[in-house]
Amino acid sequence: MSDTSRSAAQGIIDLPVHSNEEYDWDLFRSQQYFEHNYAEMRKDDARMLAIVRDWFAKAVPHDAAVLDGIDVGSGANLYPALALLPYCDPVTLYEYSRENVNWLESAIKDLPESWLPFCDVLAPEAGDPQELFELARERVAARCRVKQGSIFELASARWEIGTMFFCADSLTEDLDEFDAALGRFVGALKPGAPFAAAFMENSEGYEVGGTLFPAVSIDAARLTESFQALGTVADLEVHHVDVDPAPIRPGYTGYLVAIGKVKD
After folding, report:
1. Domain boundaries defined on the chain
2. How do residues 91-127 score in pLDDT, each as one tens digit?
3. Closest Cα to residue 250, out of 215, 198, 221?
4. Long-range contacts at 253-256 (CB < 8 A, ≥ 24 apart)
5. Distance, CA of 203 to CA of 58 (rounded, Å)
6. Strand pairing of 233-241 and 254-262?
7. Region 24-262: CATH code
8. Lower CB density within 10 Å: C or N end of the chain?
C-alpha cells in the first residue's frame, strides 16, 4: 500500500500515512513491552478487565457449552485470554509477530506470577487468590494455544467468543486499514458471538525497544462509527476508561473498551 496523506489537526500540513506492511513486526521486543505495561497491574487495566468480566458474565448463557474462543493480536498481554478462560476450551492466541509468538509460547507453559492480580479481578469473590491463580495457571497451559497469523487472514465465522486488545488500532496509521482489521476481527466470530475489544484513545504511535510502531488516532465516536458501519454488530457499547495512574507513555488520552455481539 502506498503512502497517502492526512491532514494535521489544524489542516495546515500533510504527513505521510504508514501502513502495516511498512513495519518489521519481528523487531517488537515482547519482554520489554510486558515489563513496561503489565509487570504490575494498573488501575486502568483492572477497570478494563472488569468491564470485560461483567459483559461476558451477562452475554454468555449460563447453560452454554464450552466455547471455542480467540484473542486476536495477543502480543505480550495475557489478561484478555484470562477473561476468556472461564468460558473456553480452547483459547487461540492469534499473533503475527514471531517475537510475540515465542513470548506467548513460553508464558503459557508456566504463567508468570505477575498475572495473579488480574485473575483476582476476574473472580474477586472466588476465595484464596493464590489457589485461583494456580487453577488459572493449569488452565492456561492446558487450554491456550498460540497460532501465528495475520489479522487480515483470519478465517470467517470460525470462533464463538473473542477479544482483541490494542491490535487493530496499533498496527497501522491508515484508518481504512484499521477499519479492515476491525472487520476481520468481527467477521471471524460466529453469529451470536459476544466480543470485547480495547483501543488506545487518540494514540500517536508508540516505541518499543527503540523502534517506532504505528497507531491510528480514534475517539469513541469514530470507533462507534467503525463498528456500526460493519452492519453485523448488535448490543454495542463503547466505554471510556481514564488513564490511571500516570500514562504509560506520551501520546494518548485514555482507553476505549467496546463490547457487543455479532448479529444472529
Report:
1. 24-262
2. 999 999 999 999 999 999 999 999 999 999 999 877 7
3. 215
4. 253/201, 253/202, 254/201, 254/202, 255/44, 255/48, 255/198, 255/199, 255/200, 255/201, 256/198, 256/199, 256/200, 256/201, 256/218, 256/219, 256/220, 256/223
5. 30
6. antiparallel
7. 3.40.50.150
8. C
Residue 148 identity = Q
b/e per residue, 152-173, with b = 16+ CB within 10 A?
Answer: eebeeeebbbbbbbbbbbbbbb
What cell was used for 67? 466455547
Q: What share of the chain is helix, strand, coil (3-state, %, to 5)?
A: 40, 25, 35
DSSP letter at 251 equals S
For residue 165, what are the CA distances in angstroms to 43, 109, 171?
A: 16, 22, 12
Instruction: In whole angstroms, give the CA distance from residue 84 to residue 100.
Output: 19
User: Radius of gyration over alpha carbons of the chain, in Å?
Assistant: 18
Q: Which three cell numbers mark 170?
A: 496499533
| Chain segment 28-45, per-residue pLDDT in tens | 999 999 999 999 999 999
Q: What is the pLDDT of residue 34?
A: 97
Give residue 11's pLDDT.
43
**Chain centroid to CA 57:** 18
